[in-house]
Amino acid sequence: SDLLFPGCELTASTKSYTFQVDEADDSDHILALSVVCLTDGAKDECNVVEVVGRNHENQEIAVPVANLKLSCQPLLSLDNFKLQPPVTFRLAAGSGPVHLAGWHQIVHREDASFEEDDDLSEEEEEQELAPIMPAKK
């Protein structure tokens, strides 16, 4: 099911926001970032927004995803940039306010359609495949 990510606002006083899910929840979570934009009160300065997460070796990595400036690029569409929670959004430069919006999807593992076929035996799977016929000359 898709849920709206209510978004967050990064400012000089609130420089980071962490989106996390319950560790006990065994569902898969996807957070997608759609838009990053400057809001009322922003100065004409560079506002750099970073995404802080963990790589495959569980090391923290920070990647800049937006560099906004009121006079030249006050808004950036990220086309549903998908992230795996937990993830932190950080205002690495500038004083904002910068608003981030997107959506949060929860995929319940028992809902996954590919698991419905797991009860087939290997023999049944082999019977479902059509035999390869030689090409006619």
Percent strand equals over 45%
| Number of discrete helical segments | 1
Poorly predicted residue ranges: 114-118
The whole-angstrom Rg is 22 Å
Give the SSE string: EEEEEEEEH
Could you estimate the helical fraction of the residues in percent? under 10%
Which structural category do the helix and sheet elements fall into?
mainly beta
**Ends apart, CA distance between termini:** 52 Å
- Provide the spatial order of strands within the biggest beta sheet: 1-8-3-6
List how many beta strands DSSP finds: 8
Shape assignment:
globular
Biased composition (Acidic residues): 113-128
GO biological process, one term: chromatin remodeling
Region (Disordered): 112-137
GO molecular function, one term: histone binding
